[in-house]
Structure formats: structure tokens, C-alpha cells
Design brief:
- The chain starts with a helix and ends in a 7-residue tail after the last strand.
- The chain has a 6-stranded mixed β-sheet with strand order 1-3-4-2-5-6, sandwiched between helices.
- The protein is an alpha/beta fold.
- It folds into 2 domains: 147 residues; 119 residues, Alpha-Beta Plaits (2-Layer Sandwich).
- The longest helix is centred in the middle third of the chain and has 32 residues.
- The protein is 57% helix and 12% strand.
- α1 runs antiparallel to α2, α3 runs parallel beside α5 and α5 packs antiparallel against α6.
């Protein structure tokens, strides 16, 4: 079961608890840091609502690590228990430079609290922290192939009619043959928007197309849909209705499946297209 909703709820509960701590427990030094932490959790929950993906390769992921280090620097005794959050951060999908940063900040956090401990306690805490961070890193390495394969899955989001570019390549020949046999009109509609609007537009696209029609995400800013219609006139009407329902910056390119074409070539043409809409109509029947 896809647990995006539960995870977003956990983020919001964590934000509420930190807000209470900020109001009643935190000192003047740590209160601004906790305020930033609350904002980070709330905004991260909103980002999951828009994209369903952990922001693994952006500076956004640096925020919790830097906040933990800042709290341990500002009040090492009051937030010493938070040191053990660093092994959890090691398990998140992240690039190599972020792993190194977490190791450095984890060591910095240990150094901040070791002054208030006996030598044996400080050494034991350091050994346990190191072991847990190694286990977290091992867990991350174990899951890395899964994270890398997410972009190559055929169905990108469970429960949503959004498929990968690999699935589109499989579907094009099938739908082209079906349109020939059934004497129907099929066309590929390519959509280019901003990266920030891509996931929101994918949901809109799913809501404006029929259940038997498939939607695809080709890259971070390109979507596609296979439109099935009885004739070209009806296809043009449906295309106009769909484009009118979509919000945000948009370029579109419609290509009839009644002709041979290269998906990669059409995507490149969309890159250089200046007009908001280009329609490539049938020029010759299939051989």
C-alpha cells in the first residue's frame, strides 16, 4: 500500500510537536532553529502532496542535517538526545556528497556533547553513533537500486494512470495497429510545462482524459497522452478541451498515429517549438 498520506501526516504531527516545543521549552537561541524546522516539515509535506517524491538531489535535504547540528551547537545538553537522529538521516535517498555531509555533522554533534560526558561515556557514545551510522548507510546502499529503478518503472505512481516513457514506447505500436484495425483516430499529445508544474499537471491530465486512455511522464517537464477518438474532428475537439482545462505554462504537440514517427524526434521538435500548439496530421496511410 502506498503510504504517502500516512507519511505526510507524520510530518505534520512532527511539525506540531516542534511548534509546541518552540513555544514552551526552547530558549531564545534555539527557538529560531525550531521555527525553521517547523517550516521545513510543513513545506516538505506540501511537496509530497504535489510530487509524491522525496527531494533527494536538492539542497532542500540539507536543512534537517544543518538544523540538527545547529541545535547541538546552541544547546548540547538540552538536545543531546537528538544526536541519534543522524543515523536515521543516513537511510534517506541522497547523493554521495550528502552522505559525507551527514557524517561530518554527526561527528560535529558528538563533539559538542562529549564535553559533558565522562571519557568512557563519550567514547561509548561515539562508537555507538558510528555503528548506527554505518548501519544506516548500509541500509541506504541496499535500497539504492530500488530508488534508481523508480524512474524506470512502467507505472510511476500506484493508483494513478501515469506511466513511464518506456511504457509509451511499448504502447505506440499497439495503439497504432489498433487504430488501423478499428478505423479510429489515435494521436499522441505531447505537453511541455515547467518542472514545478509537471506533477500537478499530470494529475489534471488524468482527470481530463478517459479511463481507457493512458498518460505518461517522459521527463521532468514533459507529459504525454494517447487520445483515442472516432475521427479527426472529434479528436480536435477533445484536444482543445484538454488543453483548455490544463493550468500553467504549456506547449503542446499532437501527432497522428496514422503515420510513422520517432518519439525522440518529436520530443526534440517540441524543445525547439515556438508555437503553443503544433498539430502533425495524417500524411499517408500505414504500409
Amino acid at each position: 500500500m502506498y503510504k504517502v498520506g500516512s507519511f505526510r501526516l507524520a510530518l505534520l504531527i512532527g511539525a506540531a510537536l516542534l511548534a509546541i516545543m518552540m513555544l514552551y521549552v526552547a530558549s531564545e537561541v534555539t527557538r529560531p532553529l525550531l521555527m525553521v524546522a517547523v517550516l521545513w516539515l510543513v513545506i516538505t509535506a506540501a511537496l509530497f502532496h504535489m510530487s509524491y517524491r522525496w527531494p533527494a538531489r536538492t539542497p532542500w535535504q540539507m536543512v534537517p542535517s544543518l538544523l540538527l547540528a545547529g541545535l547541538l551547537w546552541a544547546d548540547p545538553q538540552g538536545f543531546s538526545i537528538w544526536l541519534w537522529a543522524f543515523p536515521l538521516l543516513m537511510m534517506l535517498p541522497q547523493p554521495g556528497w550528502m552522505i559525507l555531509l551527514n557524517v561530518i555533522l554527526g561527528g560535529f554533534g558528538w563533539w559538542q556533547i562529549q564535553g559533558s560526558l565522562e571519557l568512557e561515556q563519550a567514547a561509548l557514545a561515539g562508537l555507538i553513533l558510528t555503528a548506527l551510522m554505518v548501519l544506516g548507510l548500509a541500509r541506504a546502499m541496499l535500497l539504492r537500486p530500488l530508488w534508481q529503478d523508480m524512474g524506470r518503472r512502467l507505472r510511476l505512481i500506484p493508483g494513478m494512470r501515469l506511466w513511464s516513457a518506456r511504457q509509451l514506447n511499448l504502447d505506440l505500436s499497439r495503439e497504432s495497429g489498433r487504430s488501423d484495425r478499428e478505423e479510429a483516430h489515435s494521436e499522441l499529445l505531447l505537453l511541455r510545462t515547467s518542472r514545478q508544474r509537471c506533477w500537478a499537471m499530470a494529475r489534471q491530465l488524468g482527470n481530463t482524459t478517459e479511463r481507457y486512455e493512458s498518460c505518461y511522464r517522459l521527463d521532468r517537464s514533459t507529459l504525454a497522452v494517447l487520445l483515442l477518438s472516432p475521427d479527426p474532428r472529434h479528436a480536435a475537439e477533445r484536444r482543445s478541451a484538454i488543453l483548455g482545462a490544463l493550468q500553467g505554462p504549456l506547449k503542446a504537440r499532437a501527432v497522428s498515429l496514422a503515420q510513422s514517427f520517432s518519439l525522440a524526434a518529436q520530443c526534440r521538435a517540441l524543445d525547439h517549438q515556438r508555437e503553443p500548439l503544433v498539430v502533425i496530421k495524417e500524411t499517408a496511410p500505414h504500409a
